[in-house]
């Protein structure tokens, strides 16, 4: 059979639509459920201020930078709590933790929707950060690895591929709801979705006894994680996360510094999202033939090449070439972060390793926007690009 047939068959098996199709595979049910809960989870938390931040700032009497610091607080809390939760995921599985995380996220959004000043606003993001540690990205990847067993890499690729559409779907929907109902009612609606959609899906779709369901004999709880490998992987992931998250907030400024007008800069920036999704598709299409190491190294090599293109070009064509290279690299490395621990660490330690790797990763996510903005502001866009290259 042609290779494309295998890809299409796998995609349909793992990601058949919820409506009108009965998903018989436990892995397929889990991936579809988690794709939806991750979209709601990230869209209702981290991505929320991007649309509703100005309205929140005006009504709460807070400066916009302080409002926009909410997601940073969330990421710092997630980093602080990831390591303590790692052993809980390994011993008890993701199902119960993710269910409670969704309920806790609903509580954080309830506090946010009812807040009338900075104290409760900050408290809401601390609560959302605790919830995120229990249900966002890393726990979802752990849940997939528990239920998919030796097919985890492919299932993770599908989950991450679906996650690439979060901002594309959530931002327009959030803007529409805010226009109709206001930011408070929109926030409370998201809280209801967390409680009545995400929590039940986590409870019903995920593995009840993951180690038995996966068909993989678990490694002993004390199985060691190779220290040097962990340190190298953590440093690599953190550096990559710093570049991708810090760069995102200043991309239009950098395009304009390269000589583009505002309309051209917006168009090139928008194309990054399409290229990033295409990069996530690379692992899905090539995973049968290429190892995760090869795909990851390819993505890493594309980053400096993309920055060199932007440094050497001042045309719209150059900016679009940069957007394509950078977006594909970013998409590839998003998949690599989820799948490489499967290949590097002993069977049965994926939950512990992934949760601990989330500590430096979330810290880099939180630190990147303010630090990178500072470099661009005081040293200039060209210095920032040379630094990244």
| CATH H-level homologous superfamily name of the largest domain | MFS general substrate transporter like domains
- The total number of structural domains is 2
End-to-end separation: 42 Å
Give the low-pLDDT segments. Answer: 1-21, 210-221
Helix content: over 70%
CATH class of the largest domain: Mainly Alpha
The beta-strand count equals 0
Provide mean pLDDT, rounded.
82
Number of helices: 19
The CATH topology name of the largest domain reads: Growth Hormone, Chain: A
From the structure above, extract its key features.
82% helix; 2 domains; mainly alpha; 19 helices; Growth Hormone, Chain: A; 389 residues; disordered N terminus; globular
Describe this structure in words.
The chain has 19 helices and no strands. By secondary structure, it is an all-alpha fold. The protein has 2 domains: 22-213, Growth Hormone, Chain: A (Up-down Bundle), CATH 1.20.1250; 227-388, MFS general substrate transporter like domains (Growth Hormone, Chain: A). Helix 3 (48-60) packs parallel to helix 10 (166-181), helix 5 (70-92) packs antiparallel against helix 6 (94-114) and helix 9 runs antiparallel to helix 17 (316-344). The radius of gyration is 21 Å and the shape is globular. The relative contact order is 0.13.
